Amino acid sequence: MTGFDVTGVSKSQCVCEPEEFESESTQSQLVEDHEAHVLVAEWRLHKFQSPIELKHEESISHDHFEPLDFHGHWDKLGEATFENTGKTAVIRFQRDELPYLRGGPLHEDTYVFEQLHFHWSDDDNSGCEHIFEGQAFSMEAHAVHYNNKYASFQEAQDKPDGLAVVGFFLEATDNADNPCFKKLTAAVQHIIKVNTLTSVAADCLTWIREEAQCKGYYTYQGSLTTEPYLESVTWILYPTPIHVSRQQVAHFRELKSTPCEKVKIVNNVRPLQTPPSHKKLNILYARSHRKSFD
Ligand SMILES: [Zn+2]
């Protein structure tokens, strides 16, 4: 399966969508902003276990977020490493200033990049954690950030506003390798053994750039999908998958999970979680951005 047309918005329109508020008066804008603020304040109180299935018709379109800004994620600065932890493959940066996220559903806070890791399974049709409109993908990448009002990821991870995780789907196709993803698939072949680490190009996240600049993302309040499953995550999920080749995904299945090297990491996906019936599932869809008046 390729694109998604549930929103009636194609990928190219999504990036270039015109602002919708230019003709509105400041007064009506303030009322709308207040209502939107109340909605978001309430929304932040409802946390769920993750992952969940995302359905567009069950989400609330929201036009009042500031633009979600990625700072430095694909810059060629400092150094980066790629590590086989025995459970996943993890990218970390060593820089004077780590990449950070601002805007969108994150209020006035700044969230600092901690690491990016991957989920995959033993086939190309089930390696993601979140499901979108009944569709699964080959892999899911999670860019984990922590709120910089806390001193570290460890301190932030159990706070309600502690973490922001940006999720990207990867879909294996019969087409050629994704050239931007090649830096990682070359490096992953050097970390086959558990607890090994290699250096990787500092600009190894260029493959997320196009999706990350798109306005159409889903956001909800959820949890870590690995132990201890803390409900401290603002999830930001881009529904359009990034295409890679089948071989590029297959490289990840070669990673060993044990020192004896008999066991490979072939499924690190948490099953879908069902929200309790008394809790209303609150997924917002950031359709467009609020016009900035300052
Ligand atoms: Zn994850």
UniProtKB/TrEMBL annotation:
Residues 30-285 form the Alpha-carbonic anhydrase domain. InterPro entries: CA_dom (IPR001148), CA_dom_sf (IPR036398), Carbonic_anhydrase_a-class (IPR023561). One of its GO terms (cellular component) is cytoplasm. It holds the Pfam family Carb_anhydrase. GO terms for molecular function: carbonate dehydratase activity; zinc ion binding. Belongs to the alpha-carbonic anhydrase family. This is Alpha-carbonic anhydrase domain-containing protein. The lineage of its organism: Eukaryota, Metazoa, Ecdysozoa, Arthropoda, Hexapoda.
